[in-house]
Amino acid sequence: MYIGKDYWKVILMLGDGFLASGNKKLAYFDFNGNKRWDVDIYNIAHGLAVYKGYVYVPISYWDTGALTILRLSDGGEVKTIDFDENVNVVQVCSHYLALGTTHSVYLYDISDPTNPKELWKFDEVATSCRGGCFGTVSIAFSPGCRYLVSADPDDHKIHLLDVATGKQVLEKKFEDKVWSVAWWGKFERVLGTIWWMDRIAVGLDNGKVYVFKVEGDEPQTTILIATRGTGTNVQGTPLPSYFSSVLAPYEKLRSVYDTLSKASATTVGIAALKKYFQSNMGFMVSLAQFGDLLQRMAALLTEAEQLLQKSENILNTKSDFNSIYTAMNYLQRAKVDLALINNTLKQLDEIVNELKLNKPTEAMSCGLAWNTVENIMKAKSVNEMYMFLSKVGGDLNKVVKTVISCTIEKVLKNYSTFRSELVKDVARLSIKWNKLNAMLTLVMKIATG
Fold first, then answer.
1. Superkingdom, according to UniProt (predicted)?
2. Are 113 and 69 in contact (CB under 8 A)?
């Protein structure tokens, strides 16, 4: 598709379209390249982020910058926060917003999306530069949002920071400018596959990409050094079984919407379905956010389970101080995971309550509504489409609203069952943590006399 010369710089993929920008414009497109809105914003930097229906735009002037917050629904400006240095990049993980500037990394709490609250600021970026600095140009969160890693091309470094405290866990220097960082942690929706969460990729100016295996808090082992055009695949591990079925109804709805988005509007039926699905975009966004939170929950549960098992293995087989310290480190990280799990659960409950209160009314049976949508998508003539519509009173908007309402209802029903299983798993892990912590306390008491 061709979207124009004004949108060459940054692309951010969303569930039902994408944001694209150049230096002077930002626009929201569907997957057919149709523009939903555009706004004039000058000096847009390299990264965009979206959270709860708001877009966070980094602005970079010569020696000043800003963070501008827009509504995703229409591109309207909500707030601008000014800085006395360039703002290069933003990233979101859960309710955290990380922001990179010329000499700093900031972390904000965006539980209230339009009023970011600064939690901490890390100032040791581009320390060797005295003018014309690049600063923090790339940021990536770890799965579960416990750490973030930033690229510092001026000092040829990456900085690994603890999200909870803002303390630097690791600083690693390279032979050339560091332009990009990424942290593995993505996993396939519904299919039950989670990718390794302990890999960091670092891209350099000389064309090399380093991939590190993270052990404890630090990237210890270089598992790949790649030049341009090469890469690696990473195997997966299974998720808890009950995750796979929770979003199945939404996946069906999303599949229909994706098909409509990719189809050319050659028939009245396809065009009308697109129109009514897009007019109910808010529900699609809420369901997508719900799915993202479930994915994060799965990552946290899996990691907490692994950390507790590692700690238990050490305490059952080792007695030296280094091993005890490692076990303590694993327990501390598992405790953070459990806290993040509880926080994510609260966010899930908020979205569930919002969907319960605002979901559209079902105007007909779910089966009839779904059959009508599927038949209209396959209709080969106006007469055939009219025949299907006449069975539901000719109101296609009510059909689409019913399909969305039925999907929400099924997702919420699945979540109710899922939540009880999840609470049991969290309780089990918490009990295990308390048991191991008591064991560690006793071992430390014996070891220190």
1. Archaea
2. yes
The dihedrals phi and psi of 119, each to the nearest 5 degrees, come to: -100, -40
Q: pTM of the full predicted structure?
A: 0.53
What are the pLDDT tens digits along the chain (449 aa)? 788 888 888 889 887 889 999 888 999 998 888 999 999 988 888 789 999 899 999 998 767 899 999 999 999 999 999 999 999 999 999 899 999 999 999 999 999 999 999 999 999 898 887 777 888 999 999 877 888 999 999 999 999 999 988 999 889 999 999 999 988 754 333 333 333 456 788 998 888 888 887 765 444 334 334 433 333 322 333 345 556 678 788 888 888 887 777 666 566 777 778 888 877 777 877 887 787 778 778 878 888 898 999 999 988 888 777 888 888 888 988 888 888 888 888 888 888 988 888 888 888 899 999 998 888 888 878 788 888 888 888 888 899 999 999 999 999 998 888 888 889 989 999 999 999 999 888 877 776 66
Under CATH, what is the fold of the domain 43-238?
Answer: Methylamine Dehydrogenase; Chain H (2.130.10)
Sign for the pseudo-dihedral over CA of 264, 265, 271, 276? positive
* CB distance 119 to 107 below 8 Å: yes
Cα separation of 112 and 134, whole Å? 30
Q: Residue 388 corresponds to which tokens in the numbers above? A: 């299907």
For 73, 179, 207, the CA distances from 226, given in Å and listed in that order, are 40, 15, 8
For residue 434, the surrounding DSSP H or E stretch is helix 396-447
Give the three-state DSSP class for 360. Answer: coil
In 3D space, the residue among 68, 148, 142 whose CA is nearest the CA of residue 104 turns out to be: 148
